[in-house]
Amino acid sequence: MDLRTAIRLRRSVRRYAAQPVPRDLLDRLAADARAADHLVRPGVRVERVDGRERVAGVLARYAGVYGLVRGAPHLLVGLIPEDTPENRIDLGYVLERVVLEATRLGLATCWMTGSYRPDRAARAIRLRPGERVAAVVALGYPRTDPLARLHDAAVRRVVAAHRRLPLTRIVFAGRWGGPWSSQGADPALVEALECARLAPSARNRQPWRFVVEGEEVHLALTTPAPIDAGIAMAHVALAGREMGLAGRWRLRWADDGMARRLRLPPGVVPAGTFSPIHPRRP
Ligand SMILES: Cc1cc2nc3c(=O)[nH]c(=O)nc-3n(C[C@H](O)[C@H](O)[C@H](O)COP(=O)(O)O)c2cc1C
Questions:
Q1: What's the whole-number mean pLDDT along residues 29-47?
Q2: Ligand 1, atom 3: nearest CA belongs to which residue?
Q3: Which is the closest atom of ligand 1 to the Cα of 159?
Q4: Hey, which end of the chain has fewer CB within 10 Å, N or C?
């Protein structure tokens, strides 16, 4: 399965079957998390909690609109060495790489920044000095019985999980608000942006906006959500690479110069710029 198919298939699953994930698949995911390390700041890393009881101990009983994520046999714990937006962006990037690889392997996942207890997650793993837990991801096989499906459907309805803004509402040309059209644009770029549009975000807020300027793509956020930014960056970079549109993100968190040049309105936070690496096609 290619990554772009995985991006289209992935959805958050909140009820899990008891069956644990086979060791060789867990090893593959762990290797994938480590392979991403060179892309990100040192110390941004992923640990794992195994066993339904241990995982249940970390998941909160109530978390706002979300029902309990229940029954997961594994939990991926996203760790950052210091609480900075850049580290959170990197964590979003790394962990989403693992989420997409898990989807490719036929596994179910659910990102969480609300439905778990960070203190308990920290106790369940071996923390390095100064480290903190920034997010977790449930991992396992989905329960498929009617009750579980009903619960998943109910939560999905509450957060309108299936909904995504159209590309024309989130992509601009040249500056904030500049009308952009996929007509005449590089099809690989259009597809990479489409993959970003399908990314998961906390409460499905879809905070990402893209300003296309020549060959560069700038990412800005309507709400300061650096993990969501990292996830969308992963979708653009990984989907792009798969199509021969190799490129690199440069983080530009809250860069005033960028905000002024792109005429971002107050409250919209610059996050980064994606530049293609030449030659474009392999
Ligand atoms: C950073 C982040 C945090 C999230 N936190 C939670 C959470 O605490 N509890 C939960 O049930 N879902 C959580 N979600 C899942 C989102 O609600 C979900 O991704 C969104 O509604 C889109 O649905 P989909 O993932 O099925 O496409 C989170 C997603 C992201 C990306």
A1: 84
A2: 202
A3: 21
A4: C
Structure tokens at 180: 């952009």
Which fold would CATH assign to domain 3-158? NADH Oxidase (3.40.109)
Q: How far apart are CA 63 and CA 158, in angstroms?
A: 13
Full-prediction pTM beyond 0.90?
yes
Q: Closest ligand 1 atom, CA of 227?
A: 1
Alpha carbon distance 176, 251 (integer Å) = 19
Domain residue spans in the chain? 3-158, 167-276
Ligand 1 centroid – CA 111 distance (Å):
5
Evaluate if residue 256 carries a pLDDT over 90: yes
Give the pLDDT confidence of 141-189 residue by residue, as tens digits.
Answer: 999 999 988 888 888 888 888 899 999 999 999 999 999 999 989 999 9
Query: What distance in Å separates the CA atoms of residue 55 and residue 253, rounded to the nearest whole number?
Result: 33
Q: Could you give the 3-state DSSP secondary structure of residue 133? A: strand
**Rounded distance from Cα 53 to ligand 1 centre (Å):** 22
DSSP H stretches of helix in the chain: 3-9, 23-35, 52-58, 85-104, 118-124, 146-158, 167-170, 187-197, 226-242, 256-261
Which residues' Cβ are closer than 6 Å to ligand 1?
11-12, 14, 63, 66, 69, 110-115, 135, 159, 161, 200-204, 227-228, 231
**What's the whole-number average pLDDT of the chain?**
93
Is the pLDDT confidence value at 280 over 70? no
- Among 80, 100, 112, 235, residue to substitute to test ligand 1 (most atoms within 8 Å of Cβ): 112
Q: Structurally, what CATH architecture does the domain formed by 167-276 represent?
A: 3-Layer(aba) Sandwich (3.40)
Contact 210, 171 (CB under 8 A): yes
Cis peptide before 42 (omega within 30 of 0): no
The end-to-end CA distance of the chain, in Å, is 20
